[in-house]
Amino acid sequence: MANIAKLIAGRAQNVLQMAARQPQLATASRFASTANNWEYIKTEVAGEKKNVAVITLNRPKALNALCNGLMKELSTALQGFGKDSSIAAIVLTGSEKAFAAGADIKEMAPNTYSQCIQGNFLNDWTEVARTQKPIIAAVNGYALGGGNELAMMCDIIYAGEKAKFGQPEIALGTIPGAGGTQRLARAVGKSNAMEICLTGNMVGAQQAQQMGLVSKVFPPDQLLAEAIKTAEKIGTHSNLIIQLCKEAVNTAYETTLQEGLKFERRTFHATFSTADRKEGMQAFVEKRPAQFKNE
Ligand SMILES: CCC/C=C/C(=O)SCCNC(=O)CCNC(=O)[C@H](O)C(C)(C)COP(=O)([O-])OP(=O)([O-])OC[C@H]1O[C@@H](n2cnc3c(N)ncnc32)[C@H](O)[C@@H]1OP(=O)([O-])[O-]
C-alpha cells in the first residue's frame, strides 16, 4: 500500500515537473521563432527535451566567411539563448563544406591601422568565449583563420572526417587576431601551433584530434546529431553546476596551477551551498535519478 502511494506521489511529482517545464519550453521556442529573421545564421531548438540550441552559420556563397553582420547576429543569438533558462547547451555549426573560411577578407581588406584601433575591430568577436552555457562546435569542412578561432572559443570541438583546420593569415600578410596564436598554442603545444601559424598549412580532422584540438571525429552526416547528443547529456545535469564546472576548467587556461587548484577547491566547496548538490547526492543514496532544479 505504502509502495502504491509512493508510486502515485512520484507520478504526480513528475506531472507537476512536466507542467512546470512547459512555459520554459515555450520560452525557448519563442526565442528561436521570434529570432528567425536572420540573414547570416539559422537558429533552432533540438533534443528530446528541446533544451539544446543549434546555431548554424549560413552564408554559403562565401563559405561562411565571418563578416560583421554575421558576427553581430551570432552575438545576438548567443545572448538570447544565454538568457533562456530552458536552454542547457548550445551547438555551433556550419555547412558540410565550411564551418567558416575565416574573417571576411574582402570586407577587412580596406581597413587601415587607425580604423582598426578606433573602430575596436574584433570587439564583437568575443561573445562565444563569454557565453556561460556550454558550447560545442560541430565542424565540417573548412575551419580557417577566424573560423578556427571561433571553434576554439567553444568548449568542445567535434569534427567531421573531412574537416580542415588552419590559420592561413600568414599568407595574407597578417597574423591571427582572435586567439589563433594563444588558444591554439594552449590546445596543441608550441611546435604544432608554430607550424600551423607559420606555414599556413591545413591539418585534417584525424591530425587535429591527435594534437588535442578536437575531441572526437565522426562521419560528416553524423556530426551534428552526435554534438546534439552530447549537449543533451550535458543538459541532464544541473545547469547551475555545469556553469561552475565550465568556469573552473576555463580557469586552468588563465592562471597558475596553485591558483587554479585554489579556485577549484573553493568552487567545489560552494557547490555544498546548492540544492542541486544536495539532491544529486541524496538521489545517489536513494538509488533514483536526480531531479535538478538549477538552484
Ligand atoms: C578575426 C581575426 C583574424 C582573422 C583573420 C582571418 O580569418 S583571414 C582569413 C583566413 N582564411 C583564408 O585565408 C581562407 C580563404 N579562403 C580560401 O582559401 C578558399 O576559399 C578555400 C580554400 C577555403 C576554398 O576554396 P574553394 O576553391 O573551394 O572556394 P572559393 O575560394 O572559390 O570560395 C568560394 C567563395 O567564398 C569566398 N570566400 C572564401 N573564403 C573567404 C573569406 N575568408 N573571406 C571572404 N570571402 C571568402 C570566395 O571569395 C568565393 O567567393 P566568389 O569569389 O566566388 O564571390
Automatic annotation (TrEMBL):
Protein's GO biological process: fatty acid beta-oxidation
Residue ranges the record marks as coiled coil: none
Keywords attached to this entry: Fatty acid metabolism, Lipid metabolism, Lyase
Cellular component annotations (GO), alphabetically ordered: mitochondrion
UniProt GO MF annotations: enoyl-CoA hydratase activity
Gene3D superfamilies per UniProt: 2-enoyl-CoA Hydratase, Chain A, domain 1, Lyase 2-enoyl-coa Hydratase, Chain A, domain 2
Top-level EC class: lyase
EC number, as in UniProt: 4.2.1.17
Position of the signal peptide: none
SUPFAM superfamilies named among the record's database cross-references: ClpP/crotonase
Similarity-based family: Belongs to the enoyl-CoA hydratase/isomerase family.
The protein's name: Probable enoyl-CoA hydratase, mitochondrial
Species of origin: Drosophila lebanonensis
Gene expressing this chain: LOC115625329
